[in-house]
Design a protein that fits this description.
By secondary structure, the protein is an all-alpha fold. It has one domain. Helices cover 72% and strands 0% of the residues. The chain is globular.
Length: 366
C-alpha cells in the first residue's frame, strides 16, 4: 500500500493535540479563557485519529482483499499485533503506577477488579462505564477503536460507494441520538457526571467519526464526487443541521462530530496540497509513533508531577508551553524506543504469521 504522508501528518497533529489538553491538567491553570478554550479542544485529536483510522483501514482492506485467501482473518491478526502488545504493556505499567485502588473513573467501585483487568486484555472494557477508562489512562479510545475493527469487515462488504457511506454517517447520527436520549433517562451508575462522560466515550457516540473517514476514502481513493450523494440524504442531513442551528440545541450533530466534519475537509485539503507546515518529516514521524506516544505521555506527566516539575516560573502561560515542550520531547524519545522494539517487531511477527497461514492455505488448495 502506497504510503500516504498526509495521513501520518494527521496522526501527528492528533497526538500533539491530545498531549496539549492533558498537559493543561497539570500545574498552575492558564488564566486566559481564550487560550484555555483552544487548548481544551486538543482532545478532539482523538476524533482525528478515528477519521484517519477508518480511511486507512478501508484502503488496506480494499487492497488486501484482492490478494489474500482469507483477508478477514488476516485483518484481525494484523490489528491484534498492531494494538495488543503495546496496550498490554500499558495495562501492566499503569497497574504498577496507579495500583489497584479507587480512582475517579471507578465511580463507587473501590478497586480495580479482576474482571476489569480481563476486560481490558480482551478489549471489552468499553461496554462498562466503570471499566472504560479506569485502568489505562485514555484506554477508552482503544476500546472504541477495537470495536470498530470488529465491525469493519461487515461495513466494507456493505458500503460500496460514497452515497452509502454518507447514508451510514446519517444513520449513525440517529443511532447515537436515540441511544443517548434513552440512556440519559436511565442512568445505571451512581454518578450522573460519570454516566454522561461514558455516553460521550462509548462507541455509538464516536461511530459518526469513523463514518466520515469512510466518506473520505471514497472521495480521495475512489475519486467519487459528492454529487453522487442522493438528494434525499443531503436533505435529511441539512434539515438536521438547520434545526440544530435554529434551536441552539446540540442534539444529533454534537461538537466532536462537527470537528470530525472539519477534519474531513482538512484531510481532503492535505491530500491535494502538501502544506509543509503540517506535512513535513517531523510531524510525519510523530504520526508514525503516535500510538506509543498516546500511551506513554500520561506516564511522563505523572512523573513530572511526582518530581514536582510541572511549574517553573510565576507566569502560568510560560509554564504551560514549557511543560508542553518537555512532555512532548520526552514522550517522543520514549515512544521511539517502544516503536522500534515493541510495535515494529510485533507487527512483523503478525505479518509472518499471516504469510505462513496463506502459504499453508495455498498448499492445501493446490
Amino acid at each position: 500500500m502506497k504510503k500516504l504522508d498526509y495521513i501520518d501528518a494527521l496522526r501527528g497533529l492528533a497526538i500533539l493535540g491530545v498531549i496539549m489538553v492533558h498537559t493543561n491538567q497539570y500545574g498552575s491553570p492558564i488564566g486566559s479563557n481564550i487560550l484555555s478554550k483552544i487548548i481544551s479542544m486538543g482532545g478532539r485529536g482523538v476524533q482525528l485519529f478515528y477519521l484517519a483510522s477508518a480511511f486507512t483501514l478501508f484502503l488496506s482492506f480494499k487492497n488486501r482483499s484482492k490478494k489474500e485467501i482469507f483477508p478477514i482473518r488476516n485483518f484481525f491478526v494484523r490489528r491484534f499485533f498492531r494494538i495488543a502488545p503495546m496496550y498490554y504493556i500499558g495495562i501492566s505499567y499503569y497497574l504498577f503506577q496507579d495500583g489497584f485502588g479507587s480512582r475517579y473513573w471507578l465511580g463507587d467501585q473501590t478497586d480495580i477488579s479482576t474482571l476489569n483487568i480481563v476486560s481490558n486484555f480482551t478489549f471489552l472494557h468499553g461496554f462498562n462505564p466503570y471499566w472504560i477508562n479506569s485502568l489505562v489512562p485514555g484506554g477508552w479510545t482503544i476500546a472504541v477503536e477495537m470495536t470498530f475493527y470488529a465491525i469493519l469487515p461487515f461495513l466494507f462488504s456493505k458500503i460500496k460507494n460514497i452515497n452509502q457511506a454518507f447514508n451510514f454517517f446519517v444513520i449513525s447520527l440517529f443511532v447515537n441520538y436515540t441511544l443517548s436520549f434513552l440512556l440519559t433517562k436511565i442512568s445505571i451508575v451512581s454518578s450522573e457526571r460519570l454516566w454522561n462522560e461514558y455516553l460521550f466515550f462509548y462507541f455509538p457516540s464516536q461511530l459518526s467519526i469513523f463514518a466520515l473517514g469512510i466518506v473520505m476514502f471514497f472521495i480521495i481513493i475512489e475519486s467519487e464526487n459528492i454529487r453522487n450523494i442522493s438528494g434525499k440524504s443531503l436533505l435529511i442531513f441539512s434539515g438536521l443541521l438547520l434545526f440544530q442551528l435554529l434551536s441552539g440545541i446540540q442534539f444529533a450533530i454534537q461538537n466532536h462530530i462537527l470537528f470530525g466534519i472539519v477534519f474531513l475537509f482538512l484531510g481532503l485539503a492535505l491530500s491535494k496540497y502538501k502544506f509543509e507546515l503540517i506535512i513535513n518529516p517531523i510531524i510525519n514521524y510523530i504520526g508514525r509513533i503516535s500510538f506509543s506516544m498516546y500511551l506513554a505521555h500520561f506516564a511522563v506527566l505523572h512523573w513530572l508531577l511526582v518530581f514536582n516539575y510541572v511549574d517553573y516560573f510565576d507566569n502560568s502561560i510560560i509554564n504551560y508551553f514549557l511543560r508542553y515542550s518537555i512532555v512532548t520531547v520526552l514522550t517522543i524519545l520514549i515512544a521511539t524506543v517502544f516503536y522500534n522494539f515493541i510495535e515494529m517487531p510485533f507487527q512483523r511477527l503478525g505479518k509472518e504469521i499471516i504469510k505462513r497461514i496463506e502459504k499453508n492455505s495455498k498448499n492445501m488448495l493446490s
